[in-house]
Amino acid sequence: MSASSGAASARPRPVLVHGQAARLDGEYAGDHWNAQRLGVPALRGRRAARFDAITQDWLRDPVKRWSRFRLATGCAFTTVTAGALALSRFSAFLAERHPGIAGEAGITRPVLEDYLSWLLAQGYSASTRALSLSMLRVFSDACHRHGWLPGLAHNAVIYAEELPYHHDQVLRGAEDADIGGVRDADVGGVLRPRSRVAAGP
Fold first, then answer.
1. Beta strands 190-191 and 186-187: pairing type?
2. I want to staple 130 with a disulfide (CB 3.0 to 4.6 A). Which of 57, 74, 161, 164 is the partner?
3. Is the CB of residue 158 less than 8 Å from the CB of residue 133?
């Protein structure tokens, strides 16, 4: 076989790779992701991620871009599914409480603080609220870092101390400190109140 014929026979391979890439791009562009069609490992029954519940176009596309990026960095498909669900919840909040927001510039700290109250008022469990806020926190951080929502204010963030599990940890720590302090103060069967350390000389 001549060199020219060998080169000709090798040409279809890049076309096939390009076709596969185009097919994947089409899958990722959709609002319903299937892990099997994306070639991503996932547990049976947990192979679907949905973005159609994110009704704001300006929000949905960056969420999908973030989700694809997370898969590329090794995140489990179930984590991406959880992220899509969490951002769908945020989308529902925006549609209900702030329907006039037409872009990321409308997402401000007061809006996020309102979201904290909204989640609580919906009766979600602490774990669901923690997951919703954690995912939104990671998403907004990624958008700031990669410019996926260029108009997003720099102070539009969820702080760690606003996560429900953080409050539980602080409460447990305070209770442990109180118990330890009571034990230290209970000397000779006499309970003495603990004194505070002076703030200055």
1. antiparallel
2. 164
3. yes
pLDDT, tens digit, 9 for 90 and up, residues 80-115:
999 999 999 999 999 999 999 999 999 999 999 999
Cα(44)–Cα(52) distance, integer angstroms: 22
Q: Tell me the C-alpha distance between 112 and 156, whole Å.
A: 7
The CA-based angle 164-170-174, given to 5 degrees, is 145
Residue 104: which of 94, 96, 113, 114 has the closest Cα? 94
* Domain segments of the chain as ranges: 50-184
What are the phi and psi torsion angles at 187 (to 5°)?
-110, 125
- Joined tokens for residue 126: 């602490």
Cα–chain center distance at 33:
17
